[in-house]
Amino acid sequence: MSGIAIVMLIVSITIVWGGLVASIVFLRRRPEVEGLAEDPEILREDTDRASRPHPSRDT
Fold first, then answer.
1. Secondary structure of 14-54 in HEC code, one letter for each residue
2. Domain around 17
3. Distance between CA atoms of 52 and 57, rounded to whole angstroms?
């Protein structure tokens, strides 16, 4: 391998692994919020839709 190929290999590895480390650090500092409040109307419609039979069923 030539010197330029080795330098490009090191640069690309640094970019990929650096991005992975940066994303892990970011998510550790600011974790995603779970259980966001949804519109109660949408939740009610989902519950109603789930209780109804599937539209293609004959029985």
1. HHHHHHHHHHHHHHHHCCCCCCCCCCHHHHHHHHHHHHCCC
2. 1-30
3. 11
HSE value, Cβ hemisphere, 13 Å, CA-based, for 47:
6
Predicted TM-score (pTM) of this structure: 0.48
Domain count, the chain: 1
CB atoms within 10 A of CB 2: 7
In a domain, 39, yes or no: no
Predicted confidence (pLDDT) per residue in 26-43, tens digit: 999 988 776 666 778 888
